[in-house]
Design a protein that fits this description.
Low-confidence stretches: 1-24
Strand content: 25-35%
CATH class: Alpha Beta
Structural class: alpha/beta
Number of helices: 4
Shape: elongated
Mean pLDDT: 84
Distance between the termini: 47 Å
Order of helices and strands: HHEEEEHEEEEH
Radius of gyration: 18 Å
Oligomer: single chain
Largest sheet: 8 strands, mixed
Length: about 200
């Protein structure tokens, strides 16, 4: 199927949700989707670190069209719809922040702090923009893209890098949800590897 036919098919699937999907209202969703870390859990954790070694994860900045609990779908260069019967437990910025923090805990030896705990040790700060978190109608994939910034205490050093991952889906809730979780985990793992065990 070529890109034009895929885009048309995706638009048909997504817009079939009707006014409820695009304009709100209707019954409460039967199921809610969250992001869950796929990196192996190390079990009980007790860690300590020297001053400046901890990592604080900030909520990423996100665009208005994805600052909702619906999953966005790009069905044209200027058209955004939402996946039918797929609702998130929270907005993507909060879900991705929690996933990233958990992935760093699982895959590095870093002490990971919430922004409310940053006064304990300013250390490294991870912030950024979650520019894509949804379905690409013309491609048959979901895309998660995160433009990350890593800064040391006092801003003496700042690094930026773009991370992204895609996973196949057909535009239905049953495939888009798992694909988003897969792609988000791939991005979180890339970021955790970038931060590493020491800088």
């Amino acid at each position: 199927m070529n890109h034009v036919m895929r885009a048309a098919a995706a638009a048909s699937i997504l817009l079939a949700a009707g006014g409820c999907a695009l304009m709100g209202g209707g019954k409460a969703p039967k199921n809610l989707m969250t992001l869950s870390a796929t990196a192996p859990s190390p079990g009980p954790i007790a860690r300590s670190g020297n001053a400046g070694e901890s990592v604080t994860i900030e909520e990423p900045v996100i665009a208005k069209e994805i600052r909702v609990t619906r999953v966005a779908a790009q069905v044209g260069s200027t058209t955004v719809a939402y996946i039918k019967d797929l609702t998130l437990v929270d907005t993507p910025d909060k879900l991705f922040k929690d996933l990233l923090a958990e992935t760093i805990v699982r895959t590095t030896n870093r002490v990971v702090l919430d922004p409310k705990q940053s006064n304990l040790d300013p250390g490294l700060s991870v912030s950024g923009r979650l520019t894509n978190f949804g379905y690409e109608g013309g491609q048959g994939t979901v895309l998660v893209r995160y433009d990350a910034a890593l800064s040391t205490a006092g801003g003496t050093r700042v690094e930026t890098r773009r991370f992204e991952a895609r996973a196949p889906a057909d535009g239905t809730a049953g495939t888009v949800g798992p694909a988003l979780n897969q792609a988000a985990n791939e991005v979180a793992t890339q970021v955790a590897s970038w931060i590493g065990n020491g800088r």
